[in-house]
């Protein structure tokens, strides 16, 4: 079993749990609920990106995949001021990311969510009328390149795969799902 296959199998319960608990239909049904959802994603990504960037295996690749700037753009488009965005709560406690293997496992979750983001973007546009310029840049993150970006990330994971790193990568992915669930689904 490849590392990608193992990640898919071993994180499936956590993926299903967060997908079920998100109550996405309610959270993209109104402008206020949607803005609150983006604020929670901002709190997760802001904290996660600061923590992960210090030990990311390839800083240029990592930074090209960061989503906080897209969330800021969306929140500004939805009426928040920059000083309000800066004061939004940040995800705490965040999972420890002690090394590049942990970052790769965590990135598996974050990058995987971009695949679902393309579907969510269509629903946001249908329900609320927002596009990449008016409040849906985060969910459109890579635009038409979402599948290409996922394949490139998968190749990066497979290249990093080894008997010494795979357990750490899988454990970090599972922990990221747990933290993300607590932050996004247990939020007010």
Mind explaining what this structure looks like?
By secondary structure, this protein is mostly helical. The chain has a single domain (3-185), classed as Heme Oxygenase, Chain A (Up-down Bundle), CATH 1.20.910. Helix content is 70%, strand content 0%. The protein is built from nine helices and no strands. Helix 7 runs antiparallel to helix 8 (146-160). The longest helix is centred in the middle third of the chain and has 29 residues, at 100-128. It is globular. The N and C termini lie far apart (40 Å).
List the helices and strands and how they pair.
Layout lengths: L2 H19 L2 H4 L3 H23 L5 H6 L3 H10 L4 H5 L13 H29 L17 H15 L5 H20 L3
Helix pairs in contact: 1-9, 3-5, 7-8, 7-9
How many H/I helical runs? 9
The computed structural class is mainly alpha
**Overall mean pLDDT:** 95
Question: What Rg is obtained from the alpha carbons, in whole angstroms?
Answer: 16 Å
| Gap between N and C termini | 40 Å
Might you state the CATH topology name? Heme Oxygenase, Chain A
CATH class: Mainly Alpha
Helical content stands at 55-70%
Q: Got a strand count?
A: 0
State which percent range the strand residues make up.
Answer: under 5%
SSE string, helix = H, strand = E? HHHHHHHHH
GO biological process, one term: heme oxidation
Protein name: Biliverdin-producing heme oxygenase
InterPro entries: Haem_Oase-like, Haem_Oase-like_multi-hlx
Organism: Microvirga makkahensis
